[in-house]
Design brief:
This protein is an alpha/beta fold. Helices cover 35% and strands 33% of the residues. Helix 1 crosses helix 2. Bound molecules: S-adenosylmethionine.
Length: 178
């Protein structure tokens, strides 16, 4: 786990496509495992919007940001509403890592509409796929809604990711706005 947090995680987010200077939304960031790693990659010219509805997780993330002296993570604390308070066509990347299943049907639909609104052309949604069976997530339905929004599936990665405090062989799908 330590090795993953120190170096492997950064390599994986680079494989995902995160680059220097990008604007990244980490929707449902939790305590910010991925936000913090992404913040190192995007550097001072980029920004990570770390959004979550869980006040305790946000507090934990704020503590980490302070102790690591991170300057490029902006926290967005919500009450769980899906519309995201960011401008149209403003983001290069949206991460939805181990979160989508937690949204109800209507919110999943609204979230995918938001992806269309928020991404720049050429930007992408990166979806770490978890709990599809238990939470009745239909990936074909996700794909179909995204296609209607001119967002197309392009890349699948099979990589080790942090899940419930340990490292698991995992799947990430990337969908690009064309
Ligand atoms: C399993 S955790 C994943 C955290 C992080 N993405 C990771 O992979 O380490 C799911 C997170 O999604 C957040 N979440 C769920 N529904 C949300 C919503 N509607 N708006 C904002 N955050 C939400 C939860 O509060 C929780 O922190």
């Amino acid at each position: 786990m330590e090795k993953w947090l120190k170096s492997e995680g950064e390599n994986i987010l680079k494989q995902v496509g995160i680059r220097k200077g990008q604007k990244v939304l980490d929707f449902g960031c939790g305590s910010g495992i991925y936000s913090i790693i992404a913040s190192k990659i995007v550097g001072s010219t980029g920004i990570i919007y770390a959004l979550d509805k869980n006040g305790e997780k946000i507090k934990e993330l704020k503590r980490k940001i302070n102790s690591l002296k991170i300057k490029n993570i902006e926290i967005i604390e919500t009450t769980g509403e899906i519309p995201v308070p960011l401008e149209n066509n403003s983001l290069n990347v949206i991460l939805i890592y181990d979160v989508f299943h937690l949204l109800n049907k209507e919110d999943r639909h609204v979230f995918l509409q938001e992806v269309k609104r928020l991404l720049k052309i050429g930007g992408f949604l990166s979806y770490y796929i978890t709990h599809t069976k238990e939470y009745d997530v239909d990936l074909e339905e996700v794909n179909n809604q995204l296609i209607k929004n001119n967002i197309v599936f392009k890349r699948k990665l099979q990589v080790p990711m942090v899940h419930w405090g340990s490292i698991e062989d995992s799947l990430i799908f990337n969908y690009y706005k064309i």
